[in-house]
Write a structure and sequence with these properties.
A: 266 residues, B: 312 residues, alpha+beta, two-stranded antiparallel sheet, 7 helices, endoplasmic reticulum (chain B), lipid metabolism (chain B)
Chain lengths: 266, 312
């Protein structure tokens, strides 16, 4: 992830707010632009590959194999973003970024790649397409932000599509893990049993079940902070629009549940 | 006309800026602690330990012993309040954190029902190292409990409730996890047999004694110094404190040593993982303490490292 529109605009106008974190320097900005452009291009390749394969075959089935290699390459490449946060050229939390990227990498390698039988599932296509669209928009958003020329369309797309793509991706991921469960149990994949020299045991099947259970709190908690640097912008953009939509309900403000819901917003 | 000008104190909520309390006729030499007690009279559930008062909403918290007239305020002081949530005294925190592992490990050692398979309930392990490990673990936590009750003097009064829940879950869950493997019917004793166990046990005992000596030394430092006179710890006649020549926080060094030797003694991976995590946490604390010492005392010895002699 790279610096957002707000941050870089302010730092570009030098010493405006002394309390604001320093944005990336010129060299770091150049590197980040290249990184984001490469990632955008990569995910575009995946998107194009998916569309072409679908048009050629005429069905949704088995499209994973056509984009397997670029998907693995570019999703694993996202690990660099943790490094960016750790080094400080991107003002995001290392922990949150790490958590996000690692959960994606885990799904790519430890579930989809490791359990071959799952690769034909439609749920794989579901999360791959969700990721592809999300990442294309996200990386182009960052690219344009770094160049201080962010088209409103991309900003709009990012926050609007996110509302559909995020649940879509989470559903695809959950269904894929669920589909992998019987094969993991049968083969004892990545599992260690007692007795052994180091007195340790690990059941991958149980681990996957726990992962699925943890999706509910984890994925819903990291919903806005996925764009940690844009939380304020998100709130300032979305909340007025929700308020506008809820205006007709103001006459019902005597009704306490509605009041409670609205008070959660502002 | 009386010479003493009384202060007026206005307490505002840090977030909403609403006035919560207005105190007039406050003595100039009143401390923040006394103001907190006065505030408590208006709000019964907000006892002083739960109150956080500041001069600016985003500023540093004021200490309880800060005197009102020494603060940069006029005769009408505006303080910003924040509710720290339910607080628990440090002693209570440590007692809860340490009784848990003590009790839980023993549950696993005596193989309480429903943990292992039905025929293994209330059986005992044929390996002597398992009993030894139980003794070591139990003694470790009993020592910690004794220190909490008799040795430690805590500078801060309390800790938020959420932290104690989090810490307890961590300690209790981890001790359950490692006790599960050590007391398991399928436990495999160490590869190098009794030699490994005995050497590890010796190092464990030495580290425990060392850790205890350091805690006593630190406590004596606080006792003779008092809160105002700050000194940093020095090696004493006790050989265990000679680690102070090399390390700022030898209590953490000994603690890591004790857990490392416990993992070698049991040859159990979860114990090693626990040791590793504890090492990371204690290194962070030791580095912080080392930095505080170095900044505060100009004559702080250069040879000292935070936690590992000559290395870290």
């Amino acid at each position: 992830m790279s610096a957002p529109a707000m941050g870089t605009t302010k730092t570009a106008h030098s010493d405006v707010a002394p309390k604001k974190k320093r944005g990336p320097g010129a060299l770091a900005t150049a590197y980040l632009v290249i990184y984001n452009v490469v990632m955008t291009a990569g995910w575009l390749v995946i998107a194009v590959g998916l569309v072409r394969a679908y048009l050629a075959r005429g069905s949704y089935h088995g499209l994973y194999y056509t984009i397997e290699k670029p998907l693995k390459f570019f999703q694993t490449g996202a690990l660099l973003e943790i490094l960016h946060c750790a080094v400080g050229i991107v003002p995001s939390s290392v922990v949150l970024t790490g958590f996000q990227v690692l959960s994606r990498v885990f799904l790519t390698w430890a579930v989809t790649h490791s359990v071959r039988e799952v690769q034909n599932e439609d749920s794989v296509l579901l999360f791959v397409s969700a990721w592809t669209i999300t990442e294309i928009i996200r990386y182009s958003f960052y690219t344009f932000s770094l160049l201080n020329h962010l088209p409103y369309l991309i900003k709009w797309a990012r926050y609007t599509f996110f509302l559909v793509l995020y649940p879509m991706g989470v559903t695809g991921e959950l269904l894929t893990v669920y589909a992998a469960l019987p094969y993991v149990q049968k083969t004892g994949l990545y599992s260690v049993t007692l007795p052994n020299k180091y007195n340790f045991s690990f059941d991958y099947h149980t681990f996957l079940i726990l992962t699925m259970v943890s999706y509910i709190p984890c994925k819903s908690l990291s919903y806005p902070p996925q764009y940690t640097t844009d939380v304020q912008y998100y709130c300032s953009w979305v909340v007025p629009r929700i308020k506008y939509i809820l205006r007709p309900f103001d006459i019902l403000s005597n009704c306490s549940p509605i009041l409670h819901f609205k008070s959660l917003l502002y | 006309m009386s010479r003493t000008t009384f202060f007026e104190v206005e307490v505002l909520d840090g977030r909403t800026r609403q006035q919560l309390c207005f105190l007039d006729k406050v003595e100039p030499h009143a401390t923040i602690g006394e103001i907190k007690s006065l505030f408590h009279k208006s709000y019964q559930q907000l006892y002083p330990a739960r109150q956080d008062l500041k001069l600016h909403p985003k500023g540093k918290s004021l200490r309880d012993d800060d005197v009102l007239q020494n603060l940069p305020v006029g005769t009408t002081a505006t303080l910003y309040f924040r509710d720290l949530g339910p607080q628990v005294g440090w002693t209570m925190v440590f007692l809860a954190e340490y009784f848990g592992p003590l009790f839980i490990y023993l549950l696993f050692y005596f193989r309480a029902p429903y943990i292992y398979s039905h025929q293994d309930a209330f059986t005992s392990s044929p390996h002597s190292v398992v009993t030894l490990a139980c003794a070591c673990h139990t003694c470790h936590y009993i020592k910690r409990l004794i220190e909490t009750i008799f040795v430690h003097r805590f500078s801060h009064g309390t800790m938020p409730l959420r932290t104690i829940v989090r810490n307890c879950v961590y300690y209790w869950a981890f001790s359950a996890w490692l006790a599960f493997y050590i007391n398991h019917p399928l436990y495999t004793p160490p590869s190098y047999g009794d030699m490994q166990v005995n050497y590890a046990l010796a190092i464990f005992v030495l580290c425990e004694l060392g850790n205890f000596s350091i805690h006593v030394a630190l406590n004596n430092l606080k006792a003779e110094g008092g809160p105002k006179c700050r000194k940093f710890p020095h090696p004493t006649k006790n050989p265990f404190t000679w680690l102070f020549f090399f390390v700022s926080c030898p209590n953490y060094t000994y603690e890591v040593g004790a857990w490392a030797s416990f993992s070698v003694m049991t040859q159990c991976l979860p114990v090693a993982l626990f040791t590793f995590l504890a090492f990371i946490q204690m290194t962070i604390w030791a580095k912080g303490k080392h930095k505080t010492y170095s900044r505060e005392f100009k004559d702080y010895p250069h040879l000292r490292m935070p936690i590992i002699p000559l290395l870290l």
